[in-house]
Amino acid sequence: MAYAEDYQDLAVYRAAFSLQQRVFATSRSFPADERYSLTDQIRRSSRSVGANLAEAWKKRRYQAHFVSKLTDADAEAAETRHWLHTAHACGYLTEEECAELERRTRQVGRMLGAMIRDAPTWCSG
User: Inter-axis angle of helices 95-117 and 63-89, to 10 degrees?
Assistant: First the structure.
């Protein structure tokens, strides 16, 4: 684990933030009639990954709370993957766009999983 003074210093946070921005930019081309459904859902879930990670960072004094918020972040990443597949199935994302965003989402999930497995290290001190 590399020392981090704040959640924004974490590689996983930077990856999650980059993902959310990419999802936002990509979803701008979704049809207007999806604005309050798919577009809103995919943006909300992708943004929740980083938000839950920020909350987890502040709760690392309590390992159970830390792990719970990281688990929430991981669940939001999985939800984002679902919406990516939905957008692709509807023809709003190309195969390449979907694959790239899914790769990023899985990477964030692996990083979150590592933090969950190493929770005592993150919560000590």
Answer: 170
